[in-house]
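Format notes (please read before filing issues)

Several people have asked whether sequences and structure tokens are stored in separate files. They are not. Every record keeps both together, in the order shown below: the sequence lines, then the token lines. Line labels are part of the format and must not be stripped during preprocessing.
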Amino acid sequence: MALAIEIGRSSVYLVQAKAKKGKITIKKKACYDFPEEWISDKGISNIEAFTEELMKRLTENHLTDKDVYLCINNASIIYRELVVPRIEEKRLALLVRSEMMNVLNLTPDYVMDFKILEEISENDRSLYRILAVAIQDKALETYLNVLKDCKLKIKYVDSATNAIIKYVSDLDIFTDNQQLILADIANSHLRLYLFENREYSLSRNTRLVLFNEESENAFVDTIVDNVNKMVQFSYTRYEGQNAKKIVLTGLDDILQTIKDRISEELMIPCEILERPSYIQSEDEYQQRYVNAIGTLIRK
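Then the structure lines:
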């Protein structure tokens, strides 16, 4: 058994699951909101309050597993796509770190990691296209301290983008679609992913008004407008006509409304993200836990 914890801008998603032989069985899940000012690009700013709330929710929902897979999905983490020479693996980490520091003007106190997206060739040179991430070591330390104070043991730290890439990699959503836009909708922000020919290309983040009954219309309008902007941007990356699709995940109670609006106004095929066959749930499956579940996938 394992416990996946996604920490977003103002929400926490908890999934206790059994992962065995490539299959994930969700046993329990829960989520809750917290004041957005508790987190910044420097990590968790109110460690005492965050720890107290997390311990309370774990106890209330009988989430007893101690091995944690953490997904960070907020301003603490920085993403950058890099194209670097294809070199031996033991030298690649140093090259990625150097490139990230130069491109983003980072200081040495950043922890960095990367994922090779694909191998490409350019002017007879073999290159890697890489998704790199960085977080200040003291920011990461705040997350680890919270887990330690909650008597939890960290097993793995993931980013939301990597979790999504793993989650969708084996799905049929890419069939006959050169470009796919995946919209991950949270209660106060939107993350849009662009995939091209089955490969992750880039992502964009947008802050939203807090979703509630009074703000629903403005919330949906903003999402449709930002999806449309990503569609228009995607046309600049391909010449001529190409097949497109939009896939939605995130807040379950609003996804159908957004799907209907996008289908009607943008006239592009739109669907809600399907559940992979290797993921089972002992109660109702919910889209809002997609990042936490993706963190449990080992690839």
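For reference, the curators noted about this record: The longest strand covers residues 110-122. Residues 188 and 210 are 5 Å apart (CA to CA).
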